[in-house]
Structures are given as C-alpha cells and as structure tokens.
C-alpha cells in the first residue's frame, strides 16, 4: 500500500486522458479484497488473484523469502513481491518494470503525451 498515494495522484492527474490504472489484489479472500479497495479509495479496476501467496506446503518451491506468489496472474507476470509495477503501452507491450517515484510518473506522462500527440 506504500504506492497508493502515488497511484491515486496518477489517476487524478490523468483523468480523461488515455490512461488506465489496474491493480491486482493479493488479499486472502475476494471479500477482503473488495473491502480493502473500498477502504483505501481505490476507484480504478482491481483484479482479485485468488490465494496469491502460498508456502512450499502448497507444492511450490521456496524462494529466498520462503513464500511465492500462487495466483494465476502473479505467476504469469512473474511477481516476486508487492507492489510489482509494470507500465504497458497502448499495444500491451511492457515499457517499464519496477519503477517508483518520479521515474514512474515520468514514464507514464511520457507515454500519455505520445498518445495525445498522435
């Protein structure tokens, strides 16, 4: 949730522009995921990834933290921790990974500006 203020600011700043924020939630249940999104004021789409974390007892090998993402989305996108940030362009191509702070803002604003200038 550390990224939440920045995420909210991006959503507010880019309202009406060609931009979409999407979150994938790793709460243990759908009900808790919905409650978290409502409580935190997350107005953008939030996808629930099922039981997103598991231990080796569930048949997955341990990584250095002893836990691994188990949800289908987390596995497909190779999530190793939360938050994992991907910036996609309008074609769905990954343009950046793991950006934070001003680097994330700059990349998102650059992509949005390029779309608006077409």
Structural features, described:
Helices cover 36% and strands 14% of the residues. With 118 residues, the protein is α+β, with helices and mostly antiparallel strands. It has a single domain (4-53, 80-116), classed as Glutaredoxin, CATH 3.40.30. The chain has a two-stranded parallel ribbon. The protein has a two-stranded antiparallel ribbon with strand order 3-4. It is globular and about 40 Å long. InterPro entries: Thioredoxin-like_sf, Thioredoxin_ResA/DsbE_sf. It comes from Caulifigura coniformis. This is Thioredoxin-like fold domain-containing protein.
Summarize the structure.
This is Thioredoxin-like fold domain-containing protein. The protein is of the alpha+beta class and 118 residues long.
How many discrete structural domains? 1
Number of strands: 6
Look at the structure and name the CATH superfamily. Glutaredoxin
The biggest sheet amounts to: 2 strands, parallel
If you compute it from the alpha carbons, what radius of gyration comes out, rounded to the nearest whole angstrom?
A: 16 Å
What is the beta-strand fraction?
Answer: 5-15%
Strand-pairing-aware structural class? alpha+beta
CATH architecture: 3-Layer(aba) Sandwich
- Supply the CATH class: Alpha Beta
**Residues in helix, %:** 25-40%
Task: Give the number of helices.
Answer: 4
